[in-house]
């Protein structure tokens, strides 16, 4: 399955090609047609499965096809609500990437910063608004956010919303937005409390569930360095002084961060290039070719840009910044230790990243060994997991799970109360997935639409 089989319009296909994407992930392959048909969607999927594109792509297409020649100020047609600033920014970047060849405008609003710039963007008019709950309700109360013409509503990371105490804000928001709308609801877990909330938002939804990758290959030696953020650059250069490291793939969370790390390595006379979404496709391909040919020793990448990297003899992966999504860690370090070869994954953890580390270790069910013997130890850093003074082969990596990940698609009811009248749910299950490529779902030929 390729994106051009999903009935997507030319501007979106061109944007996907520009980003280097040709094949949808399982959740994208099943969810995009559902959303394009105007159905509500209940998605049980964590960030890292491709779910942002699963809703961003069809939203862009629906808005583009329904866009009139109006000259009046743009009205908010789509609203995406997510619990954190970082997630909101990442979603905004996705809309920018997939909508780069379309005349649609989006903006991101979140708390913790002055509202002036955000209010200015809203006054200019936007088609798509990505927001955190608190700032959204605040600006709505002030009259800067008007949702009376909203047609598509997305609630992302619903279980995290509840964990962070946003449930009351979400309930307030539901009362404000139009009752006649298309709603998309995503949650990493689906306990009864989440299903009850979903039941108050969705109407006769399709349900798609994804079990993400959660194990690491046994051939990968993992190590953790606790280091203050200001000393990460020095620790990176220190580690790369080891001439036995022929190639290293360094991950950052942002495009700006990738460029910054590339510049400091170049200044230290370490041959490095960066790839991210702001680089042209030719520039990314040239950098990747130089890295594979070992003309470039270090490749600095963001997660999205690194999607196509497939190098069997990669020596080392370095998480310069720990990912905020646990599954992303698994995908990152899966770039090494391939084809039965040994690999090594090193992570730098500062004080603000401890929560991310905790989530990663919970997902992979191991404690990553800590390296204490290095020149830049962090101050006042709590010990997490096992420590060791020298690198040794890692014996505590779980065996890979042959059944990861899978995806199911049901026409099942979303709450237990409705099960008595429900028909037997149909399911779609994808075959096992390798680290490097998304699964190709085995989709039933039966029509999944409303009866």
TrEMBL record:
Pfam families: DEAD, Helicase_C. Residues 32-208 form the Helicase ATP-binding domain. It catalyses: ATP + H2O = ADP + phosphate + H(+). GO terms for cellular component: cytosol. GO terms for biological process: response to temperature stimulus; ribosome assembly. Keywords: ATP-binding, Cytoplasm, Helicase, Hydrolase, Nucleotide-binding. Its EC number is 3.6.4.13. Residues 1-29 form the DEAD-box RNA helicase Q domain. One of its GO terms (molecular function) is hydrolase activity. Residues 231-382 form the Helicase C-terminal domain. It is an enzyme of class 3 (hydrolase). A motif (Q motif) lies at residues 1-29. Residues 379-451 are annotated as: Disordered. Belongs to the DEAD box helicase family. This is DEAD-box ATP-dependent RNA helicase RhpA. It comes from Paludibacter propionicigenes (strain DSM 17365 / JCM 13257 / WB4).
